[in-house]
Every structure is written in structure tokens, then in C-alpha cells.
Amino acid sequence: MPNFTGKLDLSPTRLGDAVYDRIAAAIVDGSFAPGERIRDLDIAESLGVSRMPVREALQRLEREGLIEMSASRFTRVTEITPEMVTASIEFARYQTGVAARMAVERMDDAARRRSLELLEDLRTALAAGDRDRARESYFACFLFLVDQTENPVFRSVTMDARFALERNIRSGSFAIAVDDAVSALFDELRDAIESADALRAEQSILELFDATTSRD
């Protein structure tokens, strides 16, 4: 079990979200390992909260596929299967494409510049062969696009899935090199963002996923 530092002293509504965020982050970074059993009392004591917000957070994580529960038997972190990795990459591929399609039409100039900066960070990480940085850069870019959709329903659904995506995609691979074909796709996406061409941005995202991700 991770050693949580710092007690949580928040309003009841924010407390539940904070507990959820702490546990989810520990699962994503591996502090809670796949298959590891979790005791709500231990987490509650570590965070200085009652067991209720911990139980609510665990139930929420169960719905998202990060936790599995068996009444009166166990609560544990789910194992990561190859099928789960493939499904997560597929979900991320389409969600990122849709996010780009909506966001590109609605961005102001400052947001457009920021999206291009994040895209260049991803390109650089891939070119350097740094998979961890590439994943981090991808999620920074993805979540920025989600926010720029200005669609609260899309944003809520996607954010509910973000921890499962991060954990599962961490087990997959991003390409370690940017060849001429991939470089051309990045250029195409940059042009689409700059010209507010939503359909072209979406298609470029789909093709970039196909070119830079692996299920191995």
C-alpha cells in the first residue's frame, strides 16, 4: 500500500473527489499494483478521513474497471490484460479524434497556440524514443483538447475514464521513432489546427494513432 502523505481537509463534496483522485493516481503509477488487495480502513486512516468517502471512491473505481470487489471477500486492483490495453488504445484513438474535431472549431488564438506547443512536445518525445514522456505528452494534449471542446457532457464522460486509460495505456507502447510518414502526419495535424479544419484534424489524429501505437 502506498504511504499517502498529508491529511485531506476539504468539504464533503470535494473530499470524495480528492480521495478518488489519490487512490486512482496510486493505481496509475503502480503504487497499488495489479492484483493487490485494498483495505478501506487502511486508506481512511492514512488519509485521515472516514471510511465512507473511501468506499464511495472504490465503488467509482470499480465502475471504471480499476478495482474489482467481491462482497465480504476482497477488494483488489484489477489485472491488466492485453485485451484491456487494446480496448483502451482504441477508445483513446476515437475519443482524441472527436475531441480534436470539436476543439479545433472552438479554440481561440491562445488555445490554438497552446495546442500546437503540446503537439510539438509529443512529437519531440516520440522522436527521442522516450515512451514515458510520450505518454505524458499525449495525455496533456488529449486532456487539453477535451477541455477546449466546451462540451460538459463529453468532458465528464472522458474525465471519468482518464485514470483507466492512463493505467492501461501505460502498459502499451508508443513508437520510439518518428519516420518521414509520421512526421508528415504531425505536419498535417498542425496545419489542420492552424486552419481550424476540424475534419482534417480528426482524421490526422486517427492516422497518428495507427502509426505511433502498438498493442505488443
Could you describe the 3D structure shown?
The protein is mainly alpha-helical and 216 residues long. It has two domains: 66 residues, Orthogonal Bundle (Arc Repressor Mutant, subunit A), CATH 1.10.10; 133 residues, GntR ligand-binding domain-like (Four Helix Bundle (Hemerythrin (Met), subunit A), Up-down Bundle), CATH 1.20.120.530. The protein has nine helices and four strands; from the N terminus they run H-H-H-E-E-H-H-H-H-E-H-H-E. Strands 1-2 form a two-stranded antiparallel sheet. Strands 3-4 form a two-stranded antiparallel sheet. A hairpin with a 3-residue loop joins strand 1 and strand 2. 33% of the residues are buried.
Question: Top keywords for this entry?
Answer:
Four Helix Bundle (Hemerythrin (Met), subunit A), DNA-binding transcription factor activity, 216 residues, Arc Repressor Mutant, subunit A, transcription, mainly alpha, elongated, Transcriptional regulator, GntR family protein, sequence-specific DNA binding, GntR_C, two-stranded antiparallel sheet
**C-alpha Rg, in Å?**
19 Å
Helical segment count: 9
Structural class, by secondary structure, is: mainly alpha
Question: Based on the structure given, which CATH architecture of the largest domain is correct?
Answer: Up-down Bundle
Distance between the termini: 29 Å
Unreliable spans are: none
Q: What is the CATH superfamily label of the largest domain?
A: GntR ligand-binding domain-like
Helix content, binned percent: 55-70%
The CATH class of the largest domain, by name, is Mainly Alpha
Task: Kindly estimate the percentage of residues that lie in beta strands according to DSSP.
Answer: 5-15%
Report the order of strands and helices: HHHEEHHHHEHHE
CATH topology of the largest domain: Four Helix Bundle (Hemerythrin (Met), subunit A)
Q: State mean pLDDT (0 to 100 scale).
A: 89
* Extended strand count: 4
Number of domains: 2
Shape: elongated
Order of strands, widest sheet: 1-2
Largest sheet: 2 strands, antiparallel
Keywords: DNA-binding, Transcription, Transcription regulation
Organism: Microbacterium barkeri
Domain HTH gntR-type: 13-80
GO molecular function: DNA-binding transcription factor activity; sequence-specific DNA binding
